[in-house]
Amino acid sequence: MPYSLKSVFKGGSIYTIGQLLTKASAFFLIPLYTRFLTPEDFGIIGYAHVVLQFAGTFFVFGLRGSQTRFFYQYKDDSLNVGSFIFTINLFLLVILSCFFVIYFFSKEIILNYLHTNNFILAPYLDIVILIIFFQVFNQMIVAYYLAAKNYKKCAFLQFIQFILTTLIIILFVVVLNQGAYGQIKGILWGNIVFFFIFCWDYIRKFSFKFSFSHLTTALIFGIPILFHLLMGSIHASIDRVILERYVSLGELGIYTLGYQIGMVLSVIVGSINRAWQPNYFEFMSSSMDIEQKKFENRRMLALWVIGIGSICLVGMMWAKEFLILLTPEKFHVAAGVVPIILFGYFFQGLYFFAVSPLFQFKKTKFLPFLTAVSALLNIILNFMFIPKYGIYGAAYATVLSFAFQSAFVYFVSKKLFYPEYEFFPIIVAILSFTFVLIFINFLEVNFLAEMIKVIFLMLFIAGMTYLYKDYSYNILTKIRKRCLSGA
Predict the structure, then answer these.
(1) What is the pLDDT of residue 2?
(2) Shortest CA distance to 156 belongs to which of 204, 205, 197, 185?
(3) How far is CA 57 from CA 40, 132, 225, in A?
(4) Which residue positions in the chain have pLDDT lower than 70?
(5) Which pLDDT score is estimated for 480?
(6) Using an 8 Å Cβ cutoff, are 21 and 183 in contact?
(7) Angle between helices 63-71 and 78-105 (to 10 degrees)
(8) pLDDT at position 473, please?
(9) Model pTM?
């Protein structure tokens, strides 16, 4: 695909849709899993996923981003490209092999350090360690085709990986009734099968020549990304580690399920962000005058708040009905957690919007610091709230830390480019969500309650749309007046 911002947006949209369909499909499997897994199983799975997310992020060493970035530096020299990707993959192979040797010889020490109060970690951690190996290289395979702008293949690969993993999990969990152990084992075998199907085509791109220069270049670029991603992983998952120390395994499972449902908004937000950013870079790099660029930013923020806010509101108001309709009664209590998690991911959506100037003006060096401060705040809030409020304390810590992160990034970004945002729609959205949490979520499930929810949603969309149109009209009028006065 020839380079142009339009082609980037078009290709990126294909990849985004594929990713969204894949992750959304996993959401629709929740009714199946909740009938064959207990809340305790979900607790174990949630804890194992935290370890997997953190270790999987660490052992890539940011080299996935290095591969994407430096693919273009050597793209006209296939030998250099081949040498580069061979070098970084050989480095990962050596590091992971050393880690496995250390783990299996120091297993008891590691297990004592990571001990859990509610279950025996050993059999699950053994599988997670093996998953990390295959997951790291599977990430590198997908990232290579993304760097080559083969978006359709990327979407295809991720979809195939999802199908393989899901079918194997269903075999272990539904057919063989192996519970949490089967679910985690299914992830392992899904990754193994994917690796052996698709690794050969990736290996054919290698030039088997190790280069210390390539490795140094890749690590210098990748390590800052690693730190940023690690802080993001801590921010997104530390609550389950802390919860395991203070609540029962069943409560941790309920929280894990609620978090998985709430994360659907995160998937949607992330997908919209991938489609939005190419457009942002396009008009910010164009010959538009500064006032027009500011207007486009303000207009897009208003649309962003309307779109994400409406999706968030739907999820917050009908989470209870979803759980009652599609899950066994033992999981219905998760309805109290889902709206709070959704509220938190609304703020994450604002963060994605606010962080764009840091990428546009190449100030990404601030990102590790910003994510580290937000992650630290999340840890502090979890230790403050969880002992007293349990899973609800963890959920509210998520809301407050994401709110802080979006505000913090905004104040840093506005030093680079300040479009004079109109914050009234954001305030209206926050007040609406707060009203839902305090009043509407306590309504019984009946016809009158459903009508109240529908009316409230319609009023929200109508009010936000009016604010957007009125604000856009006023700003355009100001821009025309400035243009006329300048003439």
Answers:
(1) 45
(2) 197
(3) 26, 9, 10
(4) 1-26, 72-78, 271, 274-279, 281-282, 362, 364, 417-420, 470-487
(5) 53
(6) no
(7) 180
(8) 53
(9) 0.83
As to burial, measured by CB atoms within 10 angstroms (0-12 exposed, 13-18 middle, 19+ buried), residue 26 is middle
CA 311 to chain centre: 17
Which residue is it, tokens 């591969």?
67
Q: What is the pLDDT of residue 14?
A: 62
Three-state secondary structure string covering the chain: CCCCHHHHHHHHHHHHHHHHHHHHHHHHCHHHHHHHCCHHHHHHHHHHHHHHHHHHHHCCCCHHHHHHHHHCCCCCCHHHHHHHHHHHHHHHHHHHHHHHHHHHHCHHHHHHHCCCCCCCCHHHHHHHHHHHHHHHHHHHHHHHHHHCCCHHHHHHHHHHHHHHHHHHHHHHHHHCCCHHHHHHHHHHHHHHHHHHHHHHHHHCCCCCCCCHHHHHHHHHHHHHHHHHHHHHHHHHHHHHHHHHHHCCHHHHHHHHHHHHHHHHHHHHHHHHHHHHHHHHHHHHCCCCCHHHHHHHHHHHHHHHHHHHHHHHHHHHHHHHHHHHHHCCHHHHHHHHCHHHHHHHHHHHHHHHHHHHHHHHCCCHHHHHHHHHHHHHHHHHHHHHHHHHHCHHHHHHHHHHHHHHHHHHHHHHHCCCCCCCCCCHHHHHHHHHHHHHHHCHHHCCCCHHHHHHHHHHHHHHHHHHHHHHHHHHHHHHHHHHHHHHHHC
Q: In whole angstroms, give the CA distance from residue 313 to residue 315.
A: 5
Residue 368 phi/psi, 5° resolution? -55, -40
Q: Is there a contact between 30 and 299 (Cβ–Cβ < 8 Å)?
A: no
Tell me how far apart the alpha carbons of residues 327 and 17 are, in angstroms, rounded to a whole number. 27
Q: From the CA atom positions of the chain, what is the Rg in Å?
A: 24
How big is the chain, counted in residues?
A: 487
CA atoms within 13 A on the CB side of 421: 22
CB atoms within 10 A of CB 130: 17
Q: Which of 229, 227, 184 is nearest to 41 (CA)?
A: 184
Long-range contacts of 103-109 (CB under 8 A, 24+ apart): 103/129
> What are 349's two structure tokens?
């959506």
Residue 240: Cβ-neighbour burial (10 angstroms; 0-12, 13-18, 19+): buried
The tokens of 400 are what?
């407050």
Residue 321: per-residue pLDDT: 92
* CA-wise closest residue to 432 among 451, 455, 448: 455
